[in-house]
Design goal:
heterodimer, A: 588 residues, mainly alpha, two-stranded antiparallel sheet, 23 helices, 42% helix, 6% strand, elongated, B: 477 residues, alpha/beta, 13 helices
Chain lengths: 588, 477
């Protein structure tokens, strides 16, 4: 069991969390926390798999031998691909899809009800709901979108692409228009029997135009559009997806939208189904910088909790340098940084010790880096500067995981445990005073001493906080809005820490030594793989530890790069296959 | 009261107002309807949730029955604060529930279900169970085991209005990437209203969207001739209906092609399509707005976390006008997200609400949470007073025809207990004996109260509610 530098903790402080000592295997348990009290954990903390040595990963194995359930422990063999569920388009995907489908600049999903989320992601099939209010919004959006199309001149290229003939001439033209439109909208060929009611509806309008508008609207209200349906008539044995289904999964993963014409062509020919064809599509799609940016707007932003940056409110008197320009630049820096790792071939652990970042003039000045010109972000070397911690020294991480008026070592530590190691500790128990600020009597102490005082309050507090706070305190050279400092109002910064390890306590100091410890933590790459699986396939993978670990190993383990991990996920049986739930299996 | 749209209420009533000459215009309407024009007023329900529990030492009333005194957080205004946190602004002070005591019923000692035993997440657990009296699951795709009381009531009393129900939030829902308490899915951990399948009702947290849901397209009841807009709307409804008919048939035929795990998705699709169709039909036959209806201005700006006063005033006014206009008869309102960390700096309570609730017996932290609770009860009292001042079609007040169930997710925010839950009922719609404090013996559950409420709204055949509502809570009538 001794895998990590610091071990995961059970998801409970009330239950088994009574053994408080740090044992040889790391933290066996912890009983809550004190200090900054972040109010949320991802809940993905789970038991650590004992696997890692299993052979037979089966990645990219060309379709053979995908049937069967998880083998017994230690037995090589294909793993259960699990039960994935039809996924409703989320708001981002809806907007992107109607843009590609209709050439519209409208973003009707902005007014849809918020998407339901779990595990930090808004792509989970079983979590995303469809309520009457949302259905009503689909109905309204379909009218807005199709009426906009018909407001275009008949000579307009977008109009002509969809309205490809004179529908007033009758059913033959109507069917031609509807067949082509439904096939793209539903991301698979629409068959005659399905189209008949649409052609009938088109013919039933008060005028041919009204009828055609109604029929085109119906295509967008159809369950075939709203959901990404994988039709398999309840086949309970694991089987490969069809070409269109796989193309759709791939496109919504990488681009957050419907397949483009080239991907549709590969789906039609079946090319996307073989290893080489699928790999070629990954290459092509990631090379399209405009579309591939969706990966960092969706997956990257959700993985790293970038949404927080929109709502943080740093104290203006304490941090006068922080403003909305800096905020926007930090968000963009994060995205460009992650995007870089999709192409630069560097190992995932190097995301914590990168020799570059992205800044514009404002952010460079803010960070104290050599000046650059302009508002556009550009890649700059950071070797020799104080910002060599990669993800750990991005402004979005440091400012996003701080309190309005000071740093929060606890939040920063939780960020590492939760987002990078998939090992979030449980939240603090309710009776503990989590205040270490105004009114606590500790407000005049350095934050390190405040946290230490609080760890003394309860033995149970220490188990989690000794890890979280040690991580966070090593980032104390960066203030609550991410600027470098060597001293705070209490004196010189002490960025040292001690982390429990299997070999005993390990002492370190500063972000770079922290990065070195995290870089060899065997949970890091599997955690990234787990996040990729969860986001792309749309179900909870926190219990599929063997699958996750095998894929991480196949991707290269500690040498895996982000692009390789992504590709390994796409080439895996889990991504390319599905099976029906058994009657005995609880529907997610 | 059922009026043809062509002869709207306002026009009709206005035309016969001569019988009550001498009264101000609006007041003249009610006696007229009370004289026998089938002026039964609708009954309304509001489930109102407050985040993070209370400082319960300030909540507990002293005395029981009709002879009781409110706890200081909901009691009289003008509370003296000698806590070193600065002046409590007079503009934020005001009367408490004592000012409207005859319309208020306090219940203490009730317990509610929460999350599974032995796991953290009291806030999520207490939020999902607030109107359901059902345990909340830790599962990623969790849903509740059944409906919330507001949804159940809406099935009975909400079917003739523009909206059968409306779930509102006073704080923007958490974005993807931001987690809910202890890893609960926000679907159950940050909602209070659920349908019969236990899925969360859409929660609107934007004033403009709430306005649109409640008031946009609401027949005014004053039109004597269909306008061009009415005709266009009718054509649109016809087209919408034809589309919904098509996709319903299509989805039904899709079912056999799907796997077992996907069929609930299609079921949800079909259910929602049918409900939208039902609402379209209801709009066509809607009696229109109530005669007292004064629709508000549409507020396009989002609720602002940093300005609680503005947010709560807008939200309360939307609730009051929705009832007055008969746009819906069932609402739920989540004043903040579960574990809301809204700052209340303007009343001297800097720091987040949730952070502050874990005061750990620190005196100044307690003072802050006292201020937050006290301030909010001023606003809640203002809502009740507003509803009491609104005259309904039967001549009584809107509050007389409304029942508000108000509470929170945990009892004491610093303890996270789910017993001794603070409950405030207000209004006369359920026929309860108001103006009293009922101290229960600790063996009763929210579900029993919900069952009593359901019966108060005429749902006499409902056998039980939630996990523990096997018999109506005694002592209410």
């Amino acid at each position: 069991m001794s895998r990590g530098v610091f071990q995961e903790v059970p998801g409970s402080w009330r239950g088994a969390c009574v053994a408080l000592a740090l044992v040889a295997a790391g933290i066996a348990a912890c009983k809550g926390s004190v200090g900054d009290a972040p109010t949320a954990g991802s809940g993905t903390a789970g038991s650590t798999s004992g696997a890692g040595a299993s052979a037979g990963v089966g990645v990219g194995a060309g379709g053979a031998g995908v049937a069967g359930a998880t083998g017994a422990a230690g037995v090589a063999g294909p793993l259960d691909v699990g039960i994935s569920t039809a996924i409703r388009l989320n708001r981002t995907q809806y907007n992107n899809t109607v843009h590609d489908l209709l050439g519209t600049a409208l973003t009707p999903a902005d007014n849809f009800p918020p998407d339901e989320t779990s595990l930090g992601f808004d792509t989970l099939g079983g979590t995303l709901q469809l309520q009457p209010e949302r259905q009503d919004a689909y109905l309204s959006a379909s009218a807005t979108l199709i009426n906009e199309l018909f407001a275009r001149p008949v000579t307009d290229a977008i109009y002509k692409r969809i309205v490809s003939c004179d529908f007033a001439t009758g059913a033959t033209c109507a069917k031609q228009i509807l067949s082509a439109f439904a096939t793209r909208a539903w991301r698979r060929p629409a068959v005659d029997a399905e189209l008949t009611p649409y052609v009938t509806l088109a013919a039933a309008g008060p005028t041919p135009k009204d009828g055609m508008i109604a029929a085109l609207r119906a295509v967008l209200v159809s369950a075939n559009f709203i959901y990404r349906l994988e039709l398999d008539a309840n086949v309970a044995t694991t089987h490969r997806l069809g070409g269109y289904e796989l193309a759709t999964r791939l496109s919504y993963f990488l681009w957050a939208t419907m397949p483009d014409d080239a991907l549709f062509a590969d789906a039609a020919s079946g090319k996307v189904l073989d290893d080489a064809g699928l790999k070629a599509e990954i290459d092509r799609m990631l090379a399209d910088a405009t579309h591939a940016r969706a990966l960092v707007d969706t997956f990257g932003a959700e993985w790293l909790g970038l949404g927080k940056m929109q709502s943080i409110t740093p104290d203006a008197t304490m941090y006068p340098m922080f403003n909305d320009t800096v905020r926007a630049a930090m968000i963009e820096e994060n995205k460009r940084f992650v995007l870089d790792f999709l192409t630069n071939g560097k190992a995932i652990p190097l995301m914590l010790s990168a020799d570059f970042t992205y800044v514009n003039a404002a952010l460079a000045a803010y960070y104290g880096l050599p000046a650059v010109a302009g508002t556009a972000l550009q890649r700059v070397p950071v070797a020799g500067t104080n910002r060599t911690g990669g993800l750990l020294t991005l402004g979005s991480t440091l400012a996003g995981e701080s309190n309005p008026n000071r740093t929060s070592p606890t939040k920063r530590g939780l960020f590492v445990l939760d987002r990078l190691l998939c090992s979030a500790p449980p939240p603090p128990p309710p009776t503990v005073n989590t205040n270490i600020d105004q009114g606590s009597g500790l407000e005049n102490l350095p934050v390190r001493q405040r946290l230490a005082q609080h760890q003394k309050l309860g033995a149970g507090c220490q188990a989690c906080h000794s890890v979280m706070d040690s991580i966070g305190l090593s980032l104390e050279n960066f203030d609550g809005v991410g600027r470098y400092r060597t001293a705070d109002e209490f004196g010189p910064i002490d960025a040292s820490g001690t982390l429990p390890t299997a070999a005993g306590p390990m002492t370190f100091s500063g972000v770079n030594q922290l990065a070195a410890i995290l870089a060899v933590d065997p949970r890091f790459v599997p955690c990234v793989v787990q996040k990729l699986l969860t986001f792309s396939i749309g179900r909870d993978f926190s219990r599929d530890t063997t699958l996750r670990d095998q894929l991480a190993t196949a991707a290269g383990g500690g040498a895996a790069n982000l692009r390789g991990a992504l590709e390994t996920v796409v080439m895996s049986d889990a991504f390319r296959s599905r099976r029906a739930a058994l009657a005995t299996e609880v529907t997610p | 009261m059922k009026m043809s749209k062509r002869y709207g209420r306002r026009a009709f009533l206005g035309g016969t107002a001569g019988a009550v000459i001498g009264l101000p215009f609006l007041e003249s309407l009610a006696p007229r309807t009370a004289l026998g024009q089938s002026a039964a007023a609708p009954k309304r329900f509001l489930g109102y949730w407050y985040p993070n529990g209370y400082y319960m030492l300030d909540w507990h009333p002293t005395g029981t029955g009709t002879n009781f005194t409110f706890g200081p957080n909901m009691g009289p205004g003008g509370r003296v604060w000698a806590d070193g946190l600065g002046t409590f602004p007079t503009t934020e002070d005001g009367p408490g529930l004592d000012s409207i005591k005859d319309q208020v019923l306090l219940i203490s000692g009730l317990q509610n279900t929460h999350q599974p035993a032995m796991v953290p997440g009291d806030h999520s657990g207490g939020t999902g169970s607030f109107l359901t009296n059902r345990s909340v699951s830790m599962a990623v795709n969790a849903k509740m085991g059944g409906p919330s009381i507001d949804y159940t009531l809406a099935q009975a009393i909400g079917q003739t209005t523009k909206r059968p129900y409306l779930a509102m939030g006073g704080e923007a829902a958490r974005a993807a990437g931001v987690f809910c308490d202890s890893g609960f899915s926000c679907s159950v951990g940050d909602h209070i209203s659920f349908d019969n399948n236990g899925n969360p009702l859409t929660r609107y947290d934007n004033p403009g969207q709430i306005f649109d849901q409640l008031f946009m397209g609401l027949p005014t009841g004053t039109t004597t001739m269909p306008s061009a807009a009415d005709l266009a709307a009718a054509a649109r409804r016809k087209q919408d209906t034809s589309i919904l008919d098509l996709v319903t048939a299509e989805a039904t035929s899709l079912q056999p092609k799907l796997s077992r795990q996907d069929r609930p998705r299609l079921d949800a699709y079909l259910t929602s399509v049918r409900e939208v169709e039902r609402r379209i039909n209801a709009m066509q036959t809607s009696a229109g707005t109530g005669p007292m209806c004064m629709p508000p201005q549409r507020q396009a700006a989002a609720f602002m976390l940093a300005n609680p006063r503005q947010t709560i005033d807008i939200a309360h006014e939307l609730i009051a006008l929705a009832f007055q206009c008969d746009a819906t008869r069932v609402m739920s309102f989540q004043w903040g997200n579960s574990t809301s960390n809204r700052p209340h700096t303007f009343i001297g309570a800097s720091g987040g609400h949730h952070d502050t609730s874990h005061h750990g017996t620190n005196v100044q932290m307690i003072n802050k949470i006292q201020r937050i609770d006290y301030w909010w009860y001023r606003r809640f009292t203002a809502l009740l007073t507003r509803l009491k001042g609104m005259q309904d079609v039967d001549g009584r007040s809107v509050l007389d025809n409304t029942l508000i169930f108000q509470g929170t997710d945990v009892s004491d925010g610093a303890k996270h207990n789910h017993d001794d839950m603070p409950v405030v009922l207000a209004g006369g719609a359920a026929g309860f004996r108001m103006g009293q404090h009922i101290l229960t013996d600790g063996t009763h559950w929210f579900g029993e109260l919900f069952l009593a409420i359901a019966k108060g709204f005429g749902l006499n055949t409902l056998p039980s509610f939630g996990e523990y509502g096997m018999a109506p809570l005694p002592g209410l009538i």
